[in-house]
Write a structure and sequence with these properties.
Length: 106
């Protein structure tokens, strides 16, 4: 069953990493991206054992390198977010599949 995981208020930001590098085979520039994950909090654990690391708004400048930051400060951010930040609820299958939407013919 699909679920929605949404912020209780405002928006949230995932901890992510990116890198730009040159492909040694042909010299082209490649961009790689990833979302950092960690153990799921108790609200999300019934859905999956891992979840994205969600950063609090006050940490966004630290994570984005906008302020002077030590590695241990960044590592301290890599933890599950508090359950009270999130809403989790199931999605009715026909709402997430356009082929099953009411009034649509297959």
């Amino acid at each position: 069953m699909p679920y929605v995981v949404a912020p209780r208020q405002g928006m949230f930001a995932f901890a992510g990493l990116w890198e730009r590098w040159r492909n040694p085979a042909d010299g082209s520039i490649l961009r790689s991206f990833t979302i950092v994950t960690g153990p799921a909090n108790s609200l999300c654990r019934p859905i999956h054992e891992r979840m994205p690391v969600i950063l609090p708004p006050q940490a966004w400048p630290l994570w984005l390198g906008e302020t002077e930051t030590m590695p241990d400060q960044l590592l301290a951010l890599l933890q599950g977010c508090p359950e009270e930040w999130l809403r989790v609820y199931p999605v009715v299958c026909c709402r997430c599949n356009g082929r099953l939407a009411p009034g649509r013919r297959s």
